[in-house]
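Hey, can you fold this one?
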Amino acid sequence: MNIHVLDTRQLGHRGIVAATALETNAGLALFDTGPESTFDNVVVDLAQIGFNPTDVRHVFLSHIHFDHAGAAWRFAELGAMIYVHPRGAPHLIDPAKLVESAKRIFGNDMERLWGRIAPVAAERVRVLEDGDVVELAPFSIRAIATPGHASHHHVYHWNDCVFGGDVAGVRIGNGPPIPPFVPPELHVESWRESIAKIRALKPKQLYLPHFGRVEDDIDAHLDVMDEKVAHWSEWFREKIREGVSEQQLVPAFAEYEHVDLRKGGASEEDIAGYEAADPSYMAVPAALRYWKKFHPDATGASA
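Sure. Predicted structure:
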């Protein structure tokens, strides 16, 4: 079984955003694509393993955030089928609302970060429900609904392998796995249930978009993830109770996260990589919305 981790080298950073390629008898399957701004880098990496972009016949998206799905339309135009969660499919076909929402976060950096956003033709989109299987001999690739990071998130399971998307964590360099808290769909209870789903699969190989194959004990990796989802959300709950403002939370959480990363073995270079892959400031509006919407009584906040 040939699996290749392709480094998209977003904004010139290595080891930050990956696409994962699986060789099948039905053509190359790509798990996530990276942003459109890195499409040419992925083409270079494909050539290094002996493939052309037209050899990518199947693209499995963990979710539709631009760092994971931004180049999907490029592969679709070359003939690939794009597989996605039912809640993500309409936004691939018509990305206008997604772009509008992203502009509120990224502003004038949209094109620099993500490149060109364009629709995927409806005939090239295949919706996968929870548990659906795509047969790509010799593999049966199963989609598993795993919300928490995003409500429209899938992981993909075949043989003893799992492509974990963002719900399985961000892990850069020698650092520990951390949960990418981002707005607007953070949901802690669902995330912990999703981690349990991955654990139940008993994978021997786990692949992450940020970044690559997990080289050590996968159960330990998932243990750390589950612990951090709980502890980080509790940290935010206490800060909200204390009346810390959103503006104050941004540097406070960055420091909290960086201390956590150093304790887990991350170097200063690794920490910069974590910030590139998963900016800490994005956790603040995500956590505030989660607590105020789902547990206002726990913080004294209004729903």
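The chain has a mean pLDDT of 94. Let me know if you want another pass with a different chain boundary.
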